[in-house]
Write a structure and sequence with these properties.
Elements (H helix, E strand, L loop, with lengths): L8 E3 L7 E6 L19 E4 L5 E3 L15 E2 L7 H4 L5 E7 L2 E5 L20 E9 L2 E8 L11 E5 L8 E5 L4
Antiparallel strand pairs: 1-7, 2-6, 3-4, 3-5, 7-11, 8-9, 8-10, 10-11
């Protein structure tokens, strides 16, 4: 089981090959670290019809599945430089291939046609998960050919052999 900490998303590969991009948040209060549902790095985001960031899943109920691949949030919770801007913007990893460690995952659940995370190379998808007492938009196992949910990456290292963090690769062809 994962635990949320100050740093929840750590690129393992060279980040220079990727492009980060800042987008305005649809709900600026999610950047406030005192908000009970504040965003944390490693959560998956999508752009809404107003070209603003929202979570890839609604976090009201566990098991909500993302309908788009989305982008991983790349800013630690409560960073003042982000909250100080008039139009609160958050960086996401926008373009490029990368490999990263994340704490925002649930390896034990099988949602929709998905499966628990059990092997390297397994595809991943995004769903609403619970870590501790809070819900997040994070990674879960994809069920393969029978699963119609979007694939966002593939497991490269399981949490049991990676200090409790899930390592995954996001390739542009996924």
């Amino acid at each position: 089981m994962s635990t949320v900490q100050q740093i929840n998303f750590e690129p393992f590969s060279d980040i220079l090959a990727t492009q980060r991009r800042d987008f305005a948040l649809n709900d600026k209060t999610l950047a406030n670290p005192l908000n009970a549902v504040a965003l944390v790095d490693g959560e998956f985001m999508v752009l809404n019809s107003s070209y603003k960031l929202v979570r890839a899943t609604t976090i009201g109920s566990v098991g909500n599945l993302a309908t788009q691949t989305g982008y991983v949030l790349f800013a630690e919770r409560g960073r003042y430089d982000i909250r100080a801007m008039a139009d609160v913007k958050m960086p996401v990893v926008w373009l490029g291939d990368y490999e990263a460690d994340t704490r925002i995952f649930d390896a034990t659940v099988a949602l929709g046609s998905g499966a628990a995370i059990t092997f390297a190379g397994q595809p991943l998808k995004v769903a609403t998960i619970t870590i501790g007492t809070r819900n997040y938009s994070g990674l879960v196992g994809h069920g393969g050919a029978a699963d119609t949910d979007p694939v966002v990456g593939r497991v490269t290292r399981l949490p049991a052999s990676n200090g409790g963090k899930l390592r995954f690769v996001k390739a542009s062809n996924i």
